[in-house]
Design brief:
The protein is mainly alpha-helical and about 180 residues long. Helix content is about 60%, strand content about 5%. It has helices at about 5-30, 30-35, 45-60, 85-105, 125-150, 165-175; strands at about 115-120, 120-125. The protein has a two-stranded antiparallel sheet with strand order 1-2.
């Protein structure tokens, strides 16, 4: 496997890992909890989901041929908390990821050094991918943090539980994980 194939494989794995954290957080939250925000200037999980999905649909639709900021995108509406059911929220979430993963599957080695634009700014495909993985990871981190605040002691950890790092590492080294 060459470096381009390796990069495309690794970046898809990274996006899947980020999505998985969001999926596991959303699964722990009830409908009302998805709409909780710390204050009026903060975003609920539902709003973050709308924003991330809207960004994905805009950026990854016709990724190589059109500007990543589509004229059909209504970014301001992404910050209006109007998803009425958890099922609707999950459908919006899944749609964005589907568009992203479909676009990534289409990329070839030659595509990685091509240029795309986002809001008229030129990026190599690799730069655009890295920009988006950082963007989505930061928002999924927000989703996880809000989920942890809401669930408190009922939170089911998504990583190594506090106080168990050494045991986890030892088990990993012994091939038990």
């Amino acid at each position: 496997m060459n470096i381009a194939e390796t990069y495309l494989k690794v970046i898809q794995e990274r996006f899947h890992a980020v999505k998985d954290l969001g999926d596991k957080t959303i699964a722990q939250l009830e409908h009302e909890q998805l709409h909780w925000s710390y204050n009026e200037d903060s975003n609920s999980v539902a709003v973050i989901v709308k924003h991330v999905s809207g960004n994905m649909v805009s950026r990854w639709t016709d990724f190589l041929t059109t500007d990543g900021e589509k004229s059909t995108r209504n970014r301001d509406d992404e910050f209006v908390d109007n998803l009425t059911t958890k099922e609707e929220l999950i459908a919006v979430w899944e749609h964005g990821w589907q568009v992203l993963f479909e676009a990534l599957k289409q990329l070839t080695e030659a595509d990685l050094v091509k240029f795309v634009t986002i809001r008229g700014e030129k990026h190599t495909v690799i730069e655009a991918i890295e920009r988006q993985v950082a963007h989505y990871a930061s928002h999924v981190g927000q989703i996880v943090y809000v989920g942890k605040m809401i669930k408190g002691e009922q939170w089911k950890t998504l990583s190594i539980p506090k106080g168990q790092s050494q045991a986890f590492t030892e088990a990993k080294l012994k091939g038990q994980n």
